[in-house]
Inverse folding.
C-alpha cells in the first residue's frame, strides 16, 4: 500500500463526512496521544529545558519525523482537548470546556469522530488506553485496555497517597498527591504490612502485584504498548488490504507519578537542573484573580513546597517523578515504533505522536495544567509521513491539535461533504510537511480555559456570550491572553521566551496589544 490518494470506488455519507467507501493504496495511521506530556517529550534537545530528561525513543523518532516546536493544545484540560482533537470541532464552537462527557455535547455528538470518518472510508479502527477522556465502545472495531491511572496505593479500604509523601501534599490524595517509584515496602512498621497497589479501570479496583523490577505486573501503559505491538504484528500478516487507523493513549506522565523504580534511578534529585524561574513572576499575571478559590495549580504548588524543608527540595522531588514518568512513557512509545519498524507497515503508515496539553513544573509558582501560559499550552508534536522528504524537520510555525483532523483528512484522501453543517476551523499542516511549499497567511494557535463566571463582565462583548471564557492567542512572536474580566497579558517571545514580563498596559506596546485583541476577536468570529 503506497502512499497515495488511490481510486474512489463509491461514496457514502456518515456523520457529516463524505468519504470513499473503498480505496486502494491508502496509508495506515497510528496516532499516539500522551497525557500531561509537556515539550520535554518533543525529542528535540532545544525544547528540553531540563536537559537531563532521557527520551531515547522519541529522540530517535524525531530524526525521521517532522517536529513542530511550536505546537499547542486548544484547551489545557483533558476532556475538551481530546474532544476537539478527535472531532475537529473547536471549543469555541462546541462550547465544551470541561471534563464532562463529550458525546453529551450536541455539537460534538453531531460532528462524529476521526474514528467514524476513517471507518466510513473503509478503514479498520483500533484503539487502546486513554483516547477520549470518556470511553465509548462503539467508536472502535477492537479495543485493548480502557484508561487506568494506576498503579495506586491501597490501604485495605481506600486508595491513598504513598505513605512516604509528606503532609500537607499527601492530603491531595491518591492521584494528585502521590508520586514515587513502585516498590515493595512497609506501610506499617509494627505490623510489617507490605505496600499494596491497585489499578483501577471502569470503576473497578484490581490488585497490582509488585515484588521487584523483574517480578511484577505490567503497568497499564505497558499493557497498552504490548497490546498495540501484538496488534501491529497481526495487521502486518493478516493478508487484508484494508488500511487501519490506530489510536494509542498513554497515561503517563499524568498523576499519580508512579512508575517502576528503574526510571527513577535515572534521575537522582540533584542530577538535573530546575526550570529557570524569575522571583515573583506571578505578580504581574491575572489568572489567580479569576477564581473565588485558589486555582489548583497555585494550590498544588503551595502544598508541595510547604511539605519540604525548602522550595528547591520539594520541586526536585516532584520533578524527579515527572522525569521518571516521561522516560517510562518514552519506553512504551518505543515498543510501538519498534513494532512498526519491524514490519513492512513502516513504509506506508503515517505516525503522529503528541499530547493532550502541557504541564507547568513550578513556573510562575504553578504546578499543574489548566493555565494559558506557554508551558501549560505547549505540547510535543512529531509527524512522520512516508514518502515525504524530511529536509527541514523542525518547524517553528504555530500549530495546534485542532489541525490534526484536517491534516489526516487531506493525507488520507478523505473528503468532507459540502452539505456538512459541522463547523471545523482547523487548518491542515500538510503544506508545512512539504519542504517546498509556501503559505501566504500567518498561522496562530488559539487556546481557551473555562471561566467560573456566568455573565460577561466586559461590556464591549456583552452581545457575544460565547466569548465569556479566558482566551489566549499565540502567534509566531507574541502570546496574548485576555481573561473573562477584561484583564490582559502580553508576552514577546522574541525577547522573553520564559514569559517573565507582562507587557500589557505598557505604552510602548499598546498598538501591538490592540492589534492582537482585534485578531483574537476575528479568530473567534470565524
Amino acid at each position: 500500500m503506497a502512499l497515495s490518494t488511490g481510486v474512489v470506488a463509491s461514496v457514502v455519507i456518515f456523520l457529516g463526512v463524505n468519504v470513499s467507501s473503498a480505496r486502494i493504496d491508502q496509508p495506515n495511521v497510528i496516532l499516539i496521544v500522551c497525557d500531561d506530556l509537556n515539550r520535554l517529550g518533543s525529542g528535540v534537545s532545544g525544547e528540553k529545558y531540563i536537559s537531563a530528561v532521557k527520551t531515547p525513543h522519541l529522540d530517535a523518532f524525531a530524526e525521521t519525523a517532522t517536529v513542530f516546536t511550536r505546537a499547542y493544545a486548544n484547551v489545557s484540560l483533558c476532556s475538551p482537548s481530546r474532544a476537539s482533537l478527535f472531532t475537529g470541532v473547536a471549543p469555541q464552537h462546541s462550547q465544551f470546556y470541561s471534563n464532562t462527557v463529550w458525546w453529551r455535547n450536541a455539537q460534538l455528538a453531531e460532528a462524529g469522530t476521526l474514528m467514524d470518518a476513517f471507518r466510513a472510508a473503509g478503514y479498520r479502527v483500533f484503539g487502546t488506553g486513554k483516547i477520549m477522556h470518556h470511553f465509548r465502545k462503539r467508536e472502535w472495531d477492537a479495543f485493548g485496555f480502557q484508561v487506568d491511572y494506576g498503579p495506586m496505593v491501597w490501604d485495605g479500604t481506600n486508595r491513598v497517597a504513598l505513605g512516604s509523601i509528606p503532609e500537607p501534599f499527601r492530603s491531595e490524595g491518591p492521584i494528585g498527591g502521590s508520586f514515587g517509584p513502585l516498590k515493595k515496602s512497609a506501610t506499617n512498621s509494627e505490623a510489617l504490612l507490605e505496600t499494596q497497589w491497585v489499578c483501577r479501570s471502569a470503576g473497578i479496583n484490581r490488585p497490582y502485584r509488585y515484588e521487584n523490577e523483574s517480578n511484577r505486573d505490567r503497568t497499564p501503559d505497558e499493557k497498552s504498548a504490548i497490546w498495540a505491538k501484538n496488534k501491529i504484528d497481526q495487521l502486518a500478516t493478516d493478508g487484508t488490504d484494508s488500511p487501519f487507523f490506530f489510536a494509542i493513549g498513554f497515561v503517563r506522565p499524568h498523576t499519580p507519578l508512579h512508575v517502576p523504580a528503574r526510571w527513577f534511578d535515572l534521575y537522582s534529585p540533584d542530577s538535573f537542573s530546575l526550570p529557570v524561574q524569575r522571583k515573583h513572576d506571578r505578580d504581574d499575571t491575572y489568572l489567580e484573580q479569576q477564581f473565588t478559590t485558589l486555582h489548583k495549580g497555585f494550590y498544588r504548588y503551595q502544598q508541595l513546597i510547604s511539605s519540604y524543608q525548602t522550595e528547591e527540595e520539594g520541586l526536585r522531588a516532584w520533578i524527579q517523578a515527572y522525569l521518571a514518568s516521561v522516560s517510562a512513557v518514552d519506553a512504551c512509545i518505543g515498543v510501538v515504533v519498534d513494532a512498526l519498524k519491524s514490519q513492512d507497515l513502516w513504509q506506508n503508515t503515517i505516525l503522529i505522536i503528541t499530547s493532550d496539553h502541557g504541564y507547568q513544573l513550578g513556573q510562575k509558582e504553578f504546578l499543574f495544567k489548566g493555565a494559558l501560559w506557554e508551558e501549560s499550552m505547549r505540547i510535543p508534536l512529531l509527524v512522520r509521513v512516508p514518502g515525504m522528504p524530511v529536509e527541514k524537520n523542525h518547524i517553528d510555525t504555530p500549530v495546534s491539535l485542532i489541525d490534526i483532523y484536517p491534516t489526516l483528512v487531506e493525507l488520507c484522501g478523505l473528503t468532507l461533504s459540502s452539505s456538512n453543517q459541522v463547523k471545523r476551523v482547523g487548518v491542515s499542516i500538510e503544506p508545512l510537511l512539504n519542504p517546498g511549499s509556501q503559505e501566504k497567511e500567518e498561522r496562530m494557535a488559539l487556546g481557551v480555559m473555562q471561566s467560573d463566571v456566568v455573565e460577561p463582565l466586559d461590556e464591549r462583548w456583552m452581545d457575544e456570550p460565547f466569548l465569556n471564557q479566558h482566551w489566549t492567542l499565540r502567534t509566531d512572536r507574541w502570546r496574548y491572553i485576555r481573561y473573562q474580566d477584561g484583564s490582559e497579558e502580553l508576552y514577546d517571545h522574541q525577547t522573553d521566551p520564559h514569559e517573565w514580563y507582562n507587557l500589557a498596559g505598557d505604552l510602548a506596546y499598546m498598538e501591538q496589544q490592540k492589534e492582537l485583541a482585534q485578531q483574537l476577536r476575528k479568530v473567534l468570529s470565524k
Summary: Confidence is low (pLDDT under 50) at residues 1-24, 186-193. The chain is about 25% helix and 20% strand. Residues 301 and 365 are 6 Å apart (CA to CA).
